[in-house]
Amino acid sequence: MNKPKLMESNKILRTTKENFIDLTLNTIYKGKQVLIFNNSKNSSEATAEKVAIANKRVENKIELEQLAQKILKSLQTPTKQCRRLAKCIQKGTAFHHSGLTGKQRTLVETNFKSGLIKVISSTPTLAAGLNLPAYKVIIKDYKRFSARGMADIPVLEFHQMAGRAGRPGKETIGRAVVLVKSEEEQDRVIKKYIFGKSEEIFSKLAVEPTLKMYLLSLISMDMINSKNEIKDFFKNTLYAKQYQDLEGLYFNVFKILQTLKGYGFIDQQDDYYRATRLGKRVSELYLNPDTANYFLENLDDLEQIFSKEIYNEYDTYKLIHFVVNAIEMRPLFRLQRSEEDIYMAKVSDLGDDMVTKYDPFEMDYRELMQTFKTSDILQDWITEKSEDDICEMYKTTPGELNYKLSNLDWLLYSLEEFAHLKKMHFFKNVIKKTRIRFKNGVKEDIISLVSIKGIGRVRARKLYSANIRSYSDIKKVSYRKLEEIIGRSVAHKLKQEIGNEYTENDTVVYQNSKPTQIKVREVSHEEVDELVATHIKYIEEEKEVIKSAEKNNSLLNYF
DNA sequence: GGACGGTGAAACTTCAGGTTGCCTC
DNA sequence: GAAGTTTCACCGTCC
Hints:
CATH architecture of the largest domain: 3-Layer(aba) Sandwich
Number of strands: 13
Shape: globular
Largest sheet: 5 strands, parallel
Helix content: 55-70%
Radius of gyration: 29 Å
CATH class of the largest domain: Alpha Beta
Distance between the termini: 83 Å
Strand order of the largest sheet: 4-5-3-6-9
Strand content: 5-15%
CATH topology of the largest domain: Rossmann fold
Structural class: alpha/beta
């Protein structure tokens, strides 16, 4: 067997061929933790995996196994990424990037803080907002892909990462290591990142969408209303100090005010500006005014699509594609080289049929193809494709999918609000239903089933396939049959949730009553559904009464 | 001789991130 | 620029 060699410079025990693995192992074998920064998601996963394989001294195996199981169970069906993370965690190593779901990220972060996980290999996400210090930080890549090839990361970002070394209050020192390949590179890195100056920070106020959003929100909160107040406010901004071009800034501001007026979001009386009711709502929703205007301008066309008695999945696709075109959905899912032909064909087949038509001055062709890819992914989600299949097919991750879904829900909610303001009640309900579909990832036929506590997309579909299609069906079905479909414990919980418990003979024992066996009366589906509908209607009416009582400050009188 | 599987070199492809609404449990 | 993935040619084995 080969004797392990020592690196001359810093006495690191060498057991592998890669520096970062030896550095990491040496640190964790001393009982300390390591953060490794990579420049891509793939690379952060591969790095974690390499360290995990090389780690021969794993502590707290039982706790780590439990954590790995939690990671696997954090999605309805574990994806390839979940399985990879769980495997690393069994060895006390984890990766962390935007592709993980919120739940998985929290699990990794809290268990690193508690000391169970010894190593996190991450993209720069971790350096930005989180307070996760470690004894040693290894900056594996200080270059990142950009439009002009590989480029050095900014000095500020380098400091962000290196600054994670050392745990204030717990240790007196920390170490930050950057990997280089030659002495020349080492000199350059020291000069640039250790002794060099950080980049200057520039105001982004000149960027029109940002300015538009802030102007509307400042006016809507009545912080600035008159022309003089507006000028005074912007005179004191970082932008004004940096560029000294006040006249140019005022010109932009008043041009935007005209646009907002044109959108109907603000009113002007002489030199005084006020937000309209609509403008206030747009600001409250944190919507970009351009997006809000885009929604409002197309509301009638959208309503028209759903005005028929029966609408289909293609109509829903048009709605998704419409929302995907909002600026808030950017960046869209990236297009793979191998997908180009597919989406070129899709654009030519469906492009003219969508509500948002292609405008080459507004969007490049690739982006247009990406709007279709993003819509496809989102539609696959509500037609019950598994997360694993979606991630595999479109080369994406559960975290990115979740992020897009939450953005979409926010935009759909805003659209629903506008439909409400315009009294488009049927269309409002269509959006509401679509939101439930996105929340649960289901087709329309099982919406009522997923609204029951403890029933997700998988169980709902199982129930539906077994002809159990409503709340009343669940009430009627025998305990034994329910158990066969969704398992013993869920079936039990469900029966409890409903409020009565069926015996195996299909007799019912009412809660809060003597445990006598009472024969169930034969009731038709229609009869029970009617009862449930009456009950729901009653609750809705109650809510309305409470709402109006709240509005009139007469809640106490009501009760 | 053809089908099949394994191997390795060459060619091709891809590359970070994450504010904001509202509701309900 | 580098790492990962796919493609393809080549070779050996088996039927």
